[in-house]
Specification:
InterPro entries: T1RH-like_C. This is Type I restriction enzyme HindI endonuclease subunit-like C-terminal domain-containing protein. It contains two helices and no strands. The two termini are about 20 Å apart. The chain is an all-alpha fold and about 40 residues long. The longest helix has 20 residues. It is elongated, with a radius of gyration of 11 Å. It has one domain.
């Protein structure tokens, strides 16, 4: 999933300096949503 997020960020011109933070945020949001759906 991390690779897919990085590809999307690159496709839309997201700054490489901020990609790590953006990837972490997306993964955190996905984990939160999956936990909410599982409950």
């Amino acid at each position: 999933m991390r690779v897919l997020v990085k590809r999307i960020l690159r496709k839309y011109g997201y700054s490489p300096d901020l990609q790590y933070i953006a990837v972490q945020l997306v993964l955190w949001q996905a984990a939160a949503l999956s936990a909410k759906c599982a409950a």
